Amino acid sequence: MPVAVVTGAGSGLGRAFAVGLGRAGYDVALLGRTAATLEETAALVGSSLVLPTDVTSADEVGGAFAAVRDEWGRVDVLVNNAGRFGPSGLVDEIAVEEWRATVEVNLTGMFLCARSAFALMRTQSPGGGRIVNNGSISAHAPRPGSAPYTSTKHAVTGLTKSLLLDGRPFGIRCTQVDIGNAATEMTAAMPAGAPQADGSVRPEQTFDPRHVADAVVRIAQLPLDVDVPFLVMTAAGMPWLGRG
Q: Is the pLDDT of residue 141 over 80?
């Protein structure tokens, strides 16, 4: 069976990705901060490995990928999903420690997981694999008062492009999935109203995260002679370009 690693697998999109990959026949390693929620996901997945992991810790990430290697011998897919919204406010209102915490999860965490997956993918036999980075519509256009989150998601685009280039000789492909308003715990307030670029607060549409999971599974199943650098999927009608 092919092997997938999903970060932030205890809830929301991470759980949807893990369940989708499990149903598609993957062994799935579940990484996240809370063992109890990972166990809940594992009950839905099938063949899985629960690995409580702080993605901001190089030692914990390295240990998790070593456990996957020891259990299944390889990694075919990494879904780099763990992230947080971070603080909201004008730039001068944001505490430096909150900025750093957001960068640590959304960017450093993705780098550490990609780093460990890359190392396995380029040395395993047969070699290669896919890394899927969870970006955001905020990698294209910000929400008001979202400098930390938006900055990290723009940085994820740079990481994705670097992985695409550096992975090319080793059959390592990378995709960034930019999602707008999948219905998860993180977007639960959107239908009630979200701040808009014009200063108003208006309801926003959401959509079933299963559709994103289906798309990620399809990308994961493609042969490695196919690249899908970027995919954008949004709730129909949500504010995006210009956030208007």
A: yes
Domain range for residue 89? Answer: 3-243
Number of domains observed in the structure of the chain: 1
Q: What percent of the chain has pLDDT over 90?
A: 84
Say how far residue 77 (Cα) sits from the centre of its chain.
12
What does the block give as tokens for 27? 């062994």
Q: Which residues are catalytic?
A: 149
Q: Distance (Å, rounded) from C-alpha 20 to C-alpha 90?
A: 38
> Which CATH number characterizes residue 149's domain?
3.40.50.720
Compute the distance between CA of residue 138 and CA of residue 158 in angstroms, rounded to an integer. Answer: 14
Give whole-number Cα distances, 162 to 7, 117, 175, in Å.
20, 14, 11
Contact 125, 75 (CB under 8 A): no
User: Which residues are bridge partners to 194 per DSSP?
Assistant: 202
Mean pLDDT of the 208-215 span: 94
